[in-house]
Amino acid sequence: MKSCVISLIVGATCAMLPLSARAQETDTTAQRAAAQSPSENQVAKPEKPAKPRKDRRVITRDEIDKGISQGLPTAYDLVIRLRREWLRTRGETRASTVSEGNENATRAPVMFLNNTRLGEDPKTLHEIQSAVVKEIRFYSGPEATIKFGGGYPYGVVQVVTG
Questions:
Q1: From the CB of residue 107, how many other CB atoms can be counted at a distance below 10 Å?
Q2: I need a labelling partner for 45 at 20 to 30 A (CA). Which of 10, 21, 30, 120 fits?
């Protein structure tokens, strides 16, 4: 028995397929469509919205309020409890070896209250009461250079009040 040949026009070309190949193509397309669409018994589950990631560079007012309720009275206490890694000493950077030549400089971020430099000692944050803090933000060395100018290769911890 001879197989029939069907002519298919695809775009501007004409393709000749044996009938058996055309039937297989149709079956495969139907199977794909059935696999992609949910059956009558299945209900498509709505996707859960992704939780926003907490920005580890910011201590928000909500976190500050929780900290106050847990007995954290100063900005220093908040930073130590919530983002201790901000205050760690860092290794030497190329910027620190080139600038100033100060071998006794600490390798830690500089503390700021709003836009006023407090110094390199994190304990200066003891002077700032948690109740007046709006947010506390960490800037990496490059970010601090853009915001505050040069001289902060280890970053800045900025306490914003208001």
A1: 14
A2: 30
Whether 138 and 72 share a structural domain: yes
Strands annotated E in 27-155: 58-59, 110-113, 116-119, 133-139
Measure the CA–CA gap between 16 and 118, rounded to whole angstroms.
Answer: 82
Amino acid at 26: T
pTM for the structure as a whole: 0.62
Amino acid at 6: I
Beta strands 5-10; 13-18: pairing state: antiparallel
Each residue of 76-126: pLDDT tens digit?
999 999 999 999 876 665 554 444 544 445 688 999 999 999 999 999 999
User: By residue range, what is the domain housing residue 18?
Assistant: 5-35
